[in-house]
Amino acid sequence: MELLPTAFLIDSLSVYKNLRNDPVVSGLYNCVLKLYTTASANDQLSAVQAYTSMCHALYESEYNGNLADYLFDLVLYDVNVFTNACARGEYEKLSQEIKSAAATDLEALCKLSLVTDSQIKAAFKKKFIHMPELIDILPSYSISHRQYAAGSEWGENIETISRFYQENGTGMYAKYKAFLYDSERGILPVHNTDPIRISDLKQYEVQRQKIIDNTLGFLEGHPYNNVLLYGDRGTGKSSTVKALLNEYGDQKLRMIEISKRCLSDLDKLIQEVQHIPLKFILFIDDLTFNENDDNFGILKAALEGSLSTRPDNVAIYATTNRRHLIKETFSAREGNEVHRADTIDENLSLSDRFGLMVTFTKPNKDGFLAIVRQLAADRGLEIDEQKLTSGAERFALAKGGRTPRLAKQYIDHLEARMKLNLEIL
Length: 425
Fold this sequence. Notes:
Pfam families: DUF815. The protein is α/β, with parallel strands linked by helices.
């Protein structure tokens, strides 16, 4: 396309108007605007600065200087009236005016994705007629399209794009599946998540199946429970929860980890996600409370629903190593029976609000060695079984226990030594 209409196309955006604030889009806009609407040398130099700023933003992105894929990425993850309606499955309910405006914007953005660095440099050469060799050394970018079919018009594929929003949601919730909650910065996406799958976790099949069944009920809109995973350290409680996301993330499951220190914001967090057409597990790892901890009551109210109805797209999954969620101080243990009874009642009042409580205990020797054998088989380690198990026992003895975590650590240790051709201890 011609370079001159580029600024007009950006100005014409209505439904996808937010994209005008993107550094690449605004850089392209300012570059073209200053090239064609001003004559002063300073403004022409500003056009160069706008162009290099655009290239810098492209290089810093995950698309490494690819304008076409970068712009298509903006389209897929924008949040606006059109994308939100599609995410709710309400594409057909949208007015024709909004559909038409969205299609027009998509066509405009598709045309922008075809603007080449050669076109921009040619325009610079017309302005800087005495320094063509300097224009040639300006940075370049690509417009090769890898995210969509070659020759396809985005506006003509509006229904296909609408289905993407319906299946994946919008904004960062479409792009990422795991998040952390921070009291000051809010919900933050996790770029590199633990890739663990259910199949990577050995033994404890009965416990995991209960959690899987509950999660599937949650995803399919059936009755479900909040879940408390209780048991010894290193038995795979947290790994089980994280593996759920890798198994069911493509079924609209998202996970937000919230630390105990941020529980005062739990109600605020629930309100923030309750109208998003996705399913959210709020994950609290290693849950315990001190006596008179305000967060105890906050969590209890959230589990109960307090005065408001619990949203059907939010579930709370927590892990704990403690049989009693409230830590008793020495003075409390020395106190009277009434106080101890109250503490026990408080523990039960919170535990009871987790409709599903699943217990993970340390495996015995045979169970531990079974995990070791399964992990070794998964890794394809060719080693004498007697050597494998005796080494595992020595490793467990040195570490002071037998857990699935220690079994994995042993196999990691063993595999590394085998690949380095070192003696197996």
